[in-house]
Amino acid sequence: MPGPLDGIKILEFTQIIAGPFGGMLLADMGADVIKVEPLEGEPWRLALQFIPGESKTFIGLNRGKRSLPLDLTKPEAADIIRKMIPDIDVVVINARPDVPANLGIDYETLSAINPKIIYCDNTAFGRKGPHSYRPGYDLIVQAMSGLMASEGKIKDGFPQQITSTAVADYATGIAIAWGVCAALFVRERTGKGQMVETTLLGSALGVQGGFMEVEAFDGERRRDFQETLETLREAGLPYEQVDEQYRATLSPWRGGNIYYRTYQAKDGVLAVACLSDRLRKRVADILEIDDPRFEPGFDPFDEETIAVGEILTKEAEVLFTKRTVEEWLTAFDEVGVPAGPVRYVHELLDDEQVIANDMVVDLEHSKAGPVRMAGPMISMSETPLKAQSASPALGQHTDEILSEMGLDAETIQKLKDAGVTL
User: Fold this and answer.
1) Residues 14-33 pLDDT 10s
2) What CA–CA distance (Å, rounded) separates 88 from 34?
3) Tens of pLDDT, residues 50-69
4) Sign (positive/negative) of CA torsion 183, 186, 190, 196?
5) How far is C-alpha 391 from the chain's CA centre?
6) Strand partners for 421
7) Which residue of 42, 52, 166, 246 lies most exposed, with the fewest beta carbons within 10 A?
8) Dist. CA 30–CA 383, nearest whole Å
9) 9-206+358-417 belongs to which homologous superfamily?
């Protein structure tokens, strides 16, 4: 049974994470995604190669695509793109705002050839404003969006990046797939193509639930802090002191967190996550602790209440070391408390829950051999998603794609000889 985007043809000019991830999600939906790469391959192919031209980072972000290397600075490459565009439904590109026009692959140029085209343009900061010209990667956006500061990790006096995942990049990849699908739906209803714009900065702000302001509650407080912040920075205060002022003013930390955190057990670490008093009370009952914060009318900001909470937290930390992770999970399961063990992602390739829900796929890579990786993120009953193939080797589909355009073998070889393609 074909996927929901069966028959949709996508031309992808992307590198690194956000754009490739978005394109891969669309390929999982059945779209034919043609990835245009530089002749040497996109940078992520070349990062930490384990065999020539292949890296795990590239393989993990480009499955289901076909590879077409092109030197876009050559007129012959531009001719190939223009000939392809009438049959293309979607273009996905991530670059600085000036790059597409310089290469002749901007929305205005391509939509003039095919007015029905969906053009998804991903930039770091958007096409307007004082920073629009800047290149940007996940690290830069973490810094500029508040993500890094909000994480609260400070080492040697400096804030540290979120290293577990490139959160802005991956969120943007999802936004790319979401925007393209919405635009395709609109085209089905109206017959019109359009430009979709995504940004790393917008995604980073979108995943921060605290990025909002209730004027009557914290508007004045934020403005006062901004004035204080300018003063502190002008005075040259170290980042740690500035951050302490921020947390005391706008992001106060309150001690005594027992019910939404990780704990060391006898044989490992587990997480407990209770976001209602009903669930919190069940944990307290299992631990056999008397938490006065369940009493009606308690003030969470009262200093005495905070002090009691911190004492109880230390008691809970000791109690959790008395049982194994499995024993705690059994106890919590019996009363419906959300809890789970802390694992490394590498353990999940063989995890029974992951396997039972088809979250891992097995593919055959043309150069690397068998590959196991996370499969499609969603499932659909009538138009199922599928990992179509492993990521392509550089130039693996050049002859195939150009032949589909009507070019004969001699012409294709001349293009290769001229350094237009591989």
Assistant:
1) 999 999 999 999 999 999 99
2) 10
3) 999 999 999 999 999 999 99
4) negative
5) 19
6) 70
7) 52
8) 9
9) Crotonobetainyl-coa:carnitine coa-transferase; domain 1 (3.40.50.10540)
